[in-house]
Amino acid sequence: MSQNSHNMNVFDRLAKKLQRDRTAKNEDYHQFNYIKDEVGNRLSDRVYDINRKFKKGLDLGCGYGHVSRHLTKDAVEELVMCDHSALVLEKASIPEDTTINCRKIEVDEEALPFEPESFDLVMSSLSLHWVNQLPSTFSQIMKCLRPDGVFIGALFGGETLYELRGSLQLGETEREGGFAAHISPFAAIRDIGGLLNSAGFTMLTIDTDEISVGYPSMFELMEDLKGMGENNASWIRKLHLHRDTMFAASAIYKELYGNEDGSIPATFQIIYMIGWKPDPSQPKPLERGTGEISIKDLYRLDEVVKNATENMVKQTAKEITHNLEDDDGKKM
């Protein structure tokens, strides 16, 4: 293992790069991009939800351009697309809006080469789950953002492929008396907020979504994961599975999770995150004690709102009556 042990590196980054290089060499590589294309489309919607035109944006771990292809000049004027795999980057689709000034750079997501305060917008779709030191990458993203810049990202969550993980564990235990890690670990949604906060991001928005895809069997699922470049790249991965173990796991998968039509479902949990670099122009929370409703009155919130509305109506009616009386006095 060439990595420093004190860094607690989980993933073999070179192996992951080689796996993704292989996907780019396949003539039908685009057929395996359905998950990443869908998430990229949803992530681009979040860019447009922000009512702002960004001067310079970064697509970090752009893959085959899953997000960038949807961007227009209304969203970003200049775009930098980067990926760890030069072969993938070469085939990445640039924005359909050719008026965007776009360039590609080969970049390792663990070591960003950009100058401080270089971008107004940083996007990353389904790339950062292969980063060993996610807190460090978040800090580097924060550093290269300009004040009031925004980071919009998506990564696979901890519930991703739970059916496959459980089936392989049960099948291997049954056939070999123990099991190894065949599915790479993913971040839990409860951890993402803390990591973003620690990196200095503010005004966080984090939500999760699930995409379920049906496959004829476990073998087609594993073949598609390989085609996506999402096969296991952890240091402790087991390089080979016995044939008996594979068939046992496939049978268990279909028995425990199979659909009525004979297919099997595979769940992909997606964690979406938005974080802003602090700036004095951003809205600030009210100081403690300035609230007009006590938290102890929350159980009777409807009553409090009703009373406040009635008081407001009475006050408004009183002011209108007073103004009318003043107008009558002036006329006389």
From TrEMBL:
PANTHER family reported in the protein's UniProt record: ARGININE-HYDROXYLASE NDUFAF5, MITOCHONDRIAL
UniProt keyword list: Methyltransferase, Transferase
Keyword Kinase tagged: no
UniProt-listed InterPro entries: Malonyl-ACP_OMT, Methyltransf_11, SAM-dependent_MTases_sf
Residues in Methyltransferase type domain copies: 58-152
Pfam family for this entry, one: Methyltransf_11
Designated name of the protein: Arginine-hydroxylase NDUFAF5, mitochondrial
GO biological process: methylation
Gene Ontology MF: a single term: S-adenosylmethionine-dependent methyltransferase activity
SUPFAM superfamilies to which the protein is assigned, alphabetical: S-adenosyl-L-methionine-dependent methyltransferases
Organism: Daphnia pulex (Water flea)
